[in-house]
Design a protein that fits this description.
- It is a single chain.
- The chain is α/β, with parallel strands linked by helices and 159 residues long.
- Strands 3-2-4-1-5-6 form a six-stranded mixed beta sheet, sandwiched between helices.
- Helix 1 runs parallel beside helix 2.
């Protein structure tokens, strides 16, 4: 089973639009990321989970389209920036299919650390906007292993 954790792409500021959809820069970055991943690290997942926030949903949609995934997009509770990661880590421990999660900081870095067995996992794995990190486990309930991480800088050259 593989797990892909993705931080949403660049979004408009709260002052520009309180719903914070992706900016033009963010949309382009998500499309470039999908193209790059399709060529260099093909992804096959059953579902793409995303938070209820617009920027996460839009990032998930652009990645699913660009990766040509047949996966179902699903809004999942517990993926907001301030949500505690342990319930999601437990749910992933019981889940048997490969999934992609599109979410936010500091949730993602703390979740990643917990999956790797780091007690206070915040900051264990860096999630810049648009970053993709792949984890794998051989059998359900087994420990997770970090397989690879792609910085948006590698894809877009944008720091």
């Amino acid at each position: 089973m593989k797990l892909y954790l993705v931080r949403h792409a660049h979004a408009l500021s709260d002052a520009e639009d309180p719903t914070r959809p992706l900016s033009a820069k963010g949309r382009e970055a998500a499309q470039l990321a999908a193209r790059w991943l399709r060529e260099h690290a093909p992804i096959d997942v059953v579902e793409v989970w995303h938070s209820p926030l617009v920027r996460a949903r839009e990032t998930a949609e652009l990645l699913a389209e660009g990766l040509r995934l047949k996966a179902r997009l699903r809004e999942v509770p517990g993926l907001l920036p301030e949500d505690p990661p342990p319930p999601m880590a437990a749910a992933l421990g019981r889940h048997g299919d490969s999934v992609m999660i599109v979410g936010h900081e500091p949730f993602l870095s703390t979740l990643a650390g917990q999956l790797l067995g780091v007690r206070d996992g915040d900051g264990c794995v860096e999630f810049r906007k648009g970053a993709v990190v792949c984890f794998e486990r051989i059998v359900r309930g087994a420990p997770w292993t970090l397989c690879w991480s792609v910085s948006p800088y590698l894809i877009t050259g944008d720091r």
